[in-house]
Design goal:
- There is one protein chain.
- The chain is built from 14 helices and 11 strands.
- Strand 4 and strand 5 (about 95-100) form a beta hairpin.
- It is of the alpha/beta class.
Amino acid sequence: MFHHITVLKTEAVEGLAIKPDGIYVDCTLGGGGHSEQIVSRLGAGGRLIVLDQDEWALENARKRLADYINQITFVKTNFRELEQVLCGADVPMADGVPQVDGILFDLGVSSPQLDEADRGFSYNHDAPLDMRMDRQGELTAHIIVNEWEEQELSRILHNYGEERFARKIARGIVQARARSPITTTGELVEIIKAGIPAATRRSGPHPAKRSFQALRIAVNDELGAEEEALKQAVRCLKPGGRVAVITFHSLEDRICKHTFASYLERRTSPPDFPVYISEPGTLKLVGRKPIVPSEEELEANPRARSAKLRVAEKL
């Protein structure tokens, strides 16, 4: 059963300022919680387009959202194809660019993907090394762990997992696979533990958490997809339209924050010029600080602890 607790559900949808006759996109359908909130606020003329690269999520959502099925378009794809999807979805165009009223991103991995052992996302289950969100994708964690060079392994563990012991863990992986291929998450967890000092293992989160995050990001090119999709989202919003982004770790949030900032109004002061010059922006922020889960939500869903919601509006 696909059971996912939607994070910041009400806050994210309220951030979109839903218009009953608007066109909205949920780029990360997942369990369908955000989509259900959006489509339930639409009138007869409203429309929702949903994207997910996981067929399991799409099948589940078709059942959950059956009452609204005539207002929803389901698309199996990575959200980095957002603009291409909208070009083929019969939405209004402006200067050859599709235009919608709101776009939502709920980044990261869903609870069912974590909890389904054979997907290989979790360090708590012994399973084949997979970690693909799209099961038709070619790159797996098995390929990365067993075939990538030590230097590249170290780089992704450090950059994507912010793992202090990335070099030692990468060296341990290379040494272990020289004896025999590393095929399961359980084997990998033990190798990671051996690369982290005992004192460090005894405190903080699970010792494999950062490395598994890094591998998952690498397998699915999550950060590259996020950056591409956010830029497309800004292009595809109508004036007054909004984009809402939920992130779950600092790397995702940094990309969102910096991307939004690149579209804001800028004030510059040229050398030897006594006044500031304003350069008009494309976006304005809705709230200066990100929205985080309430204590009540955290009590019900501890996995929401690192979530942050940022919202911006097209000018």
